[in-house]
Amino acid sequence: MKLIGWAIALAAATMTPAAAMAQAQQPAAAAAQPQASEAGNPAGQTAADAAAEAPKPAAALPPVGSVGRALPDPNYGMPVASGKGLQHQVTGIGEEAASFHNNWLLLLCVAISIFVLALLVWTIVRYRRGANPTPSRNSHNTTIEVIWTLVPVLILVAIAIPSIRLLRHQYTPPPADLTVKVIGNQWYWTYQYPENGDIEIVSNMLKEQKDVKPGERFRTDADGPPLLAADERLVIPAGKVVKFIVTSNDVIHAFWIPAFWNKIDANPGRLNETWVKVDRPGVYFGQCTELCGARHAFMPIAVEVVPEAQFAAWVASKGGTMPGARGPAAPDSIAISPNTPSAVPPPAAAPQGATAPQGNAPPPVPAPNNPDVANRANQ
Ligand SMILES: [Cu+2]
Fold it and tell me: Model's pTM, two decimal places?
């Protein structure tokens, strides 16, 4: 017995959170080593390094409100404190699905629950021993048996028809105007734009001020809520069909933006496909929704939907081109500074979110929900 007791104590000690974390990090860090170059990490870092050193100096940032840093709207694309129900849906599929959920499934669930509860209460009261001392000995009633078989079948058919219609709409996408390859990594996202000069965006979560070294970029409310704000956003044009080809460089992740409704796994060695068409410009947040390792909770997805002209300017600012364009846009039409490691940082470090004009930088593209930034300087 003593031996068994020692064995249990030893097993419990190895299962403490600290021990579990250490075990989880070792293979994850080892797995991340060869993937850094494949992921296109611009700094040539390992995945672990990228996660640890992701925040960029505040000085390299475009101003708050410009494309890539548009101000989020708390009513759209993010969770709210004490919020109930689904987020406002901004895609046609999302509206259809939310309507199906709110106006049909929920009502049906409530009606069935009330009916069953009422039947139960009535049976308990009406047929209790005091009110019904001699119970019925009936064991079959054909009419009732037909009803309790047919009614559930009809309910399931009534759920299946709109459900299958929704699936059909979801899986028959219109022709895509833009394709973005979304790659999950432990623990950040990479977005590639193969039709726009193969530009690549590496997106890491923005840490809180207390968690970064002096001079490093940290999250502000202009970036988004804690754990959801990312240093680089996935920028897509409004009103266009955007096809996402989703895959992973290491383990299974999942790409999910609640306001778009879509959720799809990012599997290594496999290309999954989903699509969105968002008419409303704005910022929408999502998260990885597949347990993918120790920092699973820290790989948010921040999507910024902008008018097409601003999208073209953003693509140009990242060194890309629009399909059919003759080449990169002229420098004076670039709206925001390249926020890539190759970009030359401005001469002086600006405070977080600084908007004071510096140098001869071109004016930024105004964000849809912050038009006054058109008057601000670039850096
Ligand atoms: Cu993940």
Answer: 0.68
